[in-house]
Specification:
2 copies of one chain form a homodimer. By secondary structure, chain A is of the alpha/beta class. Chain A has 11 helices and 16 strands. In chain A, helix 6 packs across helix 7. The longest helix of chain A has 20 residues.
Amino acid sequence: MKQTVGSQSISFKNPVYILESASIVGKKEGDGPLGQYFDLIGEDPMFGCKSWEEAESTLQKEAALMALGKAKVQKQDVRYLFAGDLLGQLIASSFGLVDLNIPLFGLYGACSTCGEALGLGAMAVAGGYGEQVLCVTSSHFGSAEKQFRFPLEYGNQRPLSATWTVTGSGAFLLGSTETKKTRAKITGYTPGKIVDYGIKDSMNMGATMAPSAADTIYTNFMDFNRMPEDYDKIITGDLGKIGQVLLIDLLKEKGFDISKEHMDCGIEIFNGEEQDTHAGGSGCGCSAVTLSAFILKQLEEGCWKRVLFVPTGALLSTVSFNEGQTVPGIAHGVVIERR
Amino acid sequence: MKQTVGSQSISFKNPVYILESASIVGKKEGDGPLGQYFDLIGEDPMFGCKSWEEAESTLQKEAALMALGKAKVQKQDVRYLFAGDLLGQLIASSFGLVDLNIPLFGLYGACSTCGEALGLGAMAVAGGYGEQVLCVTSSHFGSAEKQFRFPLEYGNQRPLSATWTVTGSGAFLLGSTETKKTRAKITGYTPGKIVDYGIKDSMNMGATMAPSAADTIYTNFMDFNRMPEDYDKIITGDLGKIGQVLLIDLLKEKGFDISKEHMDCGIEIFNGEEQDTHAGGSGCGCSAVTLSAFILKQLEEGCWKRVLFVPTGALLSTVSFNEGQTVPGIAHGVVIERR
C-alpha cells in the first residue's frame, strides 16, 4: 500500500493517533510563559540524581511512565520505543529507558529528534508493525552545556544569538485505534534533508537551522500541494528570534509568506528578556514539551485544526566544531490535525 | 496490514530485497581473512582527508555511492537514508551523507546500528513509504579510539578481552521490486531491547553485549517458532571470542544450542593472533562490511539459505563510563534469506 506523496513526503492512508502524552520540565521552564501547561515541574534541576546525565535519564523515564499512566496502558502493551537525546551515544535515552524493557530504536537528529521519533513512530504504526509505540525525547541544560560548551562553573558570557537548552522531556503514545482521550492525529510527514549553508557559528544555531527548516516546509507545501494558510500554525522547534527572521525571509524568496502562521517553540517557552535566555529555548526537549503541553491542547480545544510541527536540529559535535567544520541543519515536518 | 509476529518481531508480508551493496575497508581489514571479498581497500587510513572523522565520512560517502553505482540507481531515486556511526552526534554520517541530498534518519545503536538501519529501512519499504532506501553505517579505528579511549600516540596496552574497531563502511540499497542483480531478501526482523547485566568493563565489550544478543536471538526463535537449525548461520556483529562463549552458554541455559550455527563478524574479519586484534573486530562497520562482502556472497552462491544477522551494540559513552555507569547492550536481529 503506497503511502508516499510528492518528492519526499508520506501521506498516511489511515491517520496515526496521538493517544496520550506527557511533559516534564525544570523550574526555569515552569517559570516561563507556558508554565501553567506542563504536567510536572521539577524544582530540583538534578531530579534527585547525582549527575546531569542521570537527571536527564530520569526525566525521560518519568515522562514515558506518565504518558503510559495517563493512557492506562501497560508498558508491555507498547510494541516499540523511538527515542533520542543530544548527548554523545544517546546515554540519556539508554539509561533512562532500559527499565521499560521495550525494544528500542535509538535516534539522533539533534534538536529535530522529536520530529524524527514521531515520524518513524507513526510510520511503524501505519505500516502495521505495532498497535502502540512510544516516542520520547529529552534535553537538559546542565548535561547539554557540559556536552557542547563550557563547565557551568566557568560562567561564560553568551552572545545574544545563543539559545538556552530546555530542561525537559516529552513522551507521546501513538496508536492505530482512536480512544476517547485521543489528543490529535498525525496525517502526514516530511522527513528532512541535511542542509548546509556553510555557517560555522555554534552560538547562532538559529542561523544554522533556518535553511533546513525552510527546505522541509517548502517541500511539505509542494508535496501536499498546500499553502501556508492551509495550516493554522507552522511551528518550528528552536530557531529562536534570529532563526525566525531568516526562515521567513528564505520562504519569501521561494514565494511563500508564513509570517502569519509561524510560531517557534523556543521563542514561546521562555520570556527571553526577563529570563536571560537570549534568542530562545532549544534542545530535543524544547519542541517535545511544547507539543505535549501547549500545541496538542490548542488542537484539542479547537483553536487550531491543522498544524505543521517542524523540530529543527543543528548537526555538530565539539569534535566537528573544533576541527573547523560547518554546522549543517536538519528539520523533520510532522502534520498534526485535530482528531 | 498487520506485519507483526510474536512478542516483538516483524514478519514482512512481502520480502524486502537487498538490491545491491558495497563495502570499503582499511588496510588492516584488507590484510585479514576476508580481504579478498571487499569491494575496495584503502591503503591510506586517512582516505585522503585531514582528520579521522573526515576519513570516516569519506568512507560512508564512497560506500553509498558505490552501492548506487553498482545498482545503476541515481541518488534522486532513493527515497530515504537510514544511517549512523559511533561518533558523538553522528558526525561521520552527517558530514559524509550531506551531499547525497536524500532525507536522512540518523540512527544510533552503537555497533548494532547496521541491524537497526536494515530493520527500519526494510520497515519503510514494506510499509509503502518508498520503492528504494539506502542503509549506511561505518566505523574507523582512529576516530573510535579518539572518541572512546586514548590518543593513538599514547600507545596504551590493551587487555586480551578488548576488540579492535574496524575501519570500514557498508552500504545497502533496499527495494520492493526484485532485480536480476538482487543479492538477498529480508523476510523478518527482531528489534532488540536494552539488556543490562551490570558489567562495567568497557574493555570487555563481548561480555557486555552477549546478554542482549542472547535475548534477541531467543526472542527471534520464540516469535518465529524456529530452532537454531532453521538458520544456516546465526551471525553476531562483534561479540569476539569471549562474547561468543558467553552467548552460547546463555542460550544453552535457555534450552538452545547454537554452537554449530554461530559465527561472529568480529572473529571472522581479523586473524586475531597474527594481527594483534585480541578478541576480534568491532564497530558499526564490522558487521556491515562482513554482511556486504561475505555473508551476502554465501547466500548468493547457495552455500546458505537463511541466516539470522544480529549486529550487537554496547551502550556507553566516556561520560557514562567515567560516571561509573554500567555498559548495557542491545542487538537487532535481521532475517536474511537467499532470493
